[in-house]
Design brief:
There is one protein chain. The protein has helices at 16-38, 82-92, 98-114, 119-133, 138-153, 159-170, 183-192, 222-235, 252-255, 268-277, 287-291, 300-318; strands at residues 68-71, 174-182, 197-201, 203-206, 209-214, 243-246, 260-264, 280-282. By secondary structure, it is of the alpha/beta class. The strands form 2 sheets. It has a 6-stranded parallel beta sheet with strand order 3-2-1-6-7-8, sandwiched between helices. Strands 4-5 form a two-stranded antiparallel ribbon. Strand 6 (243-246), helix 9 (252-255) and strand 7 form a beta-alpha-beta unit. Helix 3 (98-114) packs antiparallel against helix 4 and helix 3 (98-114) packs antiparallel against helix 12.
């Protein structure tokens, strides 16, 4: 049983690496936002839902520029795991082989099922993902990421969550994605949805080429809270006036940081926690899918299994 100890959920406080990851994400997010403002693009039409079609919060205060909203990405803004959709796109472009795809998929499935960060397991998953992009140029992955968004992600945006984000934008507030996904992927999604910017995991690069290392650790759990804290300090946000949205109990540190926490499509642990603290809840799933929130990967593991099968089928057809 000791070998399965990492399957038992446990809280982990912020570490020096969490703080480093959070500060690096805030710095990279601000830099990406400044660059996109210099060459603005129109929001993606697939991501823009009419706010009147969905319930929106009543608390965004018009013109309150000291308030901002922070949205988790996977299963909160987008159905499924963004990193897996990105992996499917890279597999399609022959960045790695079928065996690596299967290994990557299983690592993501186990991580989503456990909802914890066992050091050895996380290191293995991290090394696998980083080895795929090592030696490639950042600009190359950004260009490919744009294509992958159109292929796999654009139609997976939850309209209800998109409407919540738009309510904050309409009130003149900044809206940021906060995700463990690579900062490059997160930035593309944020730009396509017309959001302010994104905070994500920062992979080290030298002269525009990935080294295969991270700056700190993945932006997950406490690291997300550190990223939001760092951004708020830089932008002058009053966290008591800010809002945060997530589906996962792993994001309780980030949700607890703001005055307006929301549980969106919550897993069982977050739902219980939110009800106990009287946080607001929104669930845009329906029927049996919403009933299966006991597994954090209600959309994650299923997407991984189905996506792996689809990728393998694609490989076979090509042969």
């Amino acid at each position: 049983m000791a070998a399965l100890g990492w399957l038992t959920p446990r809280r982990r406080p912020a570490t020096a690496r969490s703080v480093l990851a959070g500060e690096a994400a805030a710095e990279a997010g601000l830099k990406s936002t400044q660059e996109s403002q210099e060459s603005p693009e129109s929001p993606d039409p697939h991501g823009n839902a009419a706010t009147g079609a969905h319930e929106v919060p009543d608390f965004p205060v018009l013109g309150d520029d000291r308030a901002a909203a922070f949205f988790d990405l996977d299963n909160t803004v987008m159905q499924g795991a963004s990193i897996f959709h990105f992996g499917r796109g890279l597999y399609k472009r022959k960045f790695f082989q079928r065996r690596e795809l299967a290994r990557f998929a299983w690592q993501q499935a186990w991580f989503r099922l456990a909802g914890v960060e066992d050091p050895e397991h996380m290191q293995d998953a991290r090394d696998s993902a980083l080895s795929i992009v090592k030696g490639h140029r950042v600009s190359e992955l950004m260009s490919i990421g744009e294509e992958i968004y159109d292929e796999y992600m654009a139609d997976r945006i939850w309209p209800g969550t998109r409407a919540l984000a738009q309510a904050h934008l309409d009130a003149g507030q900044q809206v940021w994605l906060v995700t463990a996904a690579p900062i490059e992927t997160a930035t593309i999604i944020a730009r396509r949805l017309g959001l302010t910017g994104a905070l994500g995991t920062v992979a080290e690069s030298v002269d525009g080429v990935y080294t295969g290392k991270l700056v700190g650790e993945p932006l997950h759990g406490p690291a997300k809270a550190e990223a939001v804290r760092a951004l708020a300090a830089t932008e002058g946000f009053d966290l008591d006036r800010c809002a945060a949205y997530s589906d996962s109990h792993n994001d309780i540190p980030m949700l607890s940081l703001v005055g307006h926490p929301y549980a969106i499509n919550p897993d069982t642990k977050l739902r219980k926690h939110a009800r106990r603290l009287e946080w607001r809840l929104r669930d845009y799933r329906t029927g049996r899918k919403a009933a299966k929130v006991g597994i954090p990967a209600a959309a994650g593991v299923g997407a991984i299994a189905g996506g792996t099968a689809a990728a393998v089928a694609l490989h076979r057809r090509r042969r």
